[in-house]
Amino acid sequence: MSNGTLLIVSSSPSLFPEIRYMTSTGLAADITPENIAACEPTQWNMDFLTPAQATQLWGTDPKDRRIMSVEGNTLLLNDPPQFLAHYYHFCAELLLGLWSFWVGAAHPNPPPPIHRAIFPHSAGSEWRDGPGFNSYFLRAALPSLTIEVDIDWKDRVEATSHPEVNRAWHFPYLLLADRSAAFRGRLCGSVNQRTASESVDGLIARSKLDLDAIWWRPIKHAVWRFAGVAGMGMASPLNPQILQQSVESFEETDKITITYISRQDTRRRLIPEDHDLLVKELESLVARKNVEIELSKGPNRPARKEWVLNVVRAEQMSRDEQILLGVHGNGLSHLILMPRTRISSVIEIFYPGGFAHDYEWTTHALALKHYVVWNDTYFTDENTPSVDYPEGFQGERIPAYGPTIANLIERHIVRDQF
User: Global pTM?
Assistant: First the structure.
């Protein structure tokens, strides 16, 4: 990098994607034609140099070249703060996509450590979300990671901007992520609007990632370990050789845990009476199943798992849920920490007629089951609705018929148990 421009030295630039599919100006997005045009990269954002041009700039003698190597492996996150300060976009989209590319395309298994992350457009407070999930997750998953932000990037730019002295920073291994560039891709731009899809789905199609999301376990297990979960022979980015032994498609748990994330103190929430009925139906379901378990106990009979219900706020994190239930919203991002059992699924409640790909795509990317609920009707993977945001989508009176949801959960669990 010199004077803020990412320079690729290559005698074969045609082997690379077009620059617009790799980077952008890093401006905030507002989807107007003017803004879309303003996000298009110029030669000041990224450019190619031939080896001859590089030699002309920096000479042939390494001792005389004013090129400073930034040792180690680097993530360059060229996104604006607009999306960074959001748990879903930061952890369940940006980090998910980065890790999928790191293990699926950039390196063989086990992958080497990531030493630093650079946020060139974000201040130190601007990549952190309000509840603190982003910093918790990042520090837990990659505890040795160092972070540089906009003022640090400005230092690097200014150090290489002298008009009469050609200086540059050399990054031996750098992975660049850019939200605007991802939206120019076919999958993100036209199919699902998920930036991570360009990496995850693209690599799965090339057989570079497994279909059971084992590739994600080192990150997930590292966060579990940080949170105090013991045992399970967990893989982590610091101990990736365990991942090579983690060949089981499913992760087993001792109980059947249903977690309902309540949004009743936020803007987008259920009709109060529907929330109360839903909790009542879930409590009744769990109590009834546990009575059935007690009655079924006996010699020579296989043990059956206890059912558990957790009704929590989005700010609470857990690794126990196999059924994650809630209104469309940020709390469902916790699905990236769910164990992948035979019954693991996400049940997402929308205002009738509404749908967005956010959590549906992420659920499938991690090889889990997803259901859409419109009041007393639900949809499976086979008949997922089209994207729509009807009036009421963001409202305070989203209907949800508790008996239908409880019946869906029971049928799903019983079907996949036997």
Answer: 0.91
Residue of 83, 396, 388, 370 lying closest to 263 (CA atoms): 396
Which H helix or E strand runs over 76? strand 73-77
CA torsion 165-13-77-83 (nearest 10°) is 130
To 5 degrees, how large is the angle CA 134–CA 182–CA 49?
110
Joined tokens for residue 249: 């498609």
Q: Which amino acid is at 324?
A: L
Residue 245, classified by CB atoms within 10 Å of its CB into exposed (0-12), middle (13-18) or buried (19+), is: exposed
Q: Which secondary-structure segment (H or E) carries 278?
A: helix 272-296
Q: Whole-angstrom Cα distance, residue 277 to residue 34?
A: 48
Q: Which amino acid is at 289?
A: K
Cβ-contact 142, 220 below 8 angstroms:
no
Nearest-CA neighbor of 255 among 211, 224, 289, 297?
289
CA-atom Rg of the chain in angstroms: 24
Q: Which residue has 């990037």 as its token pair?
A: 153
Reported as a single tens digit per residue, the pLDDT across 16-69 is 999 999 999 999 988 899 999 999 999 999 999 999 999 999 988 877 788 999
Which is it for strands 377-379 and 369-374: parallel, antiparallel or unpaired? antiparallel
Q: Check the CA dihedral 131-281-270-352 and report its sign.
A: positive
Choose among 159, 189, 188, 156: nearest CA to 174: 156
- Per-residue pLDDT, averaged over 126-136, amounts to 95
- Cross-strand pairs, 327: 349
pLDDT in tens, 366-413: 999 999 999 999 999 889 999 999 999 999 999 999 999 999 999 999
What whole-number distance in Å separates Cα of residue 126 and Cα of residue 122? 6
Q: Is the pLDDT of residue 417 over 80?
A: no
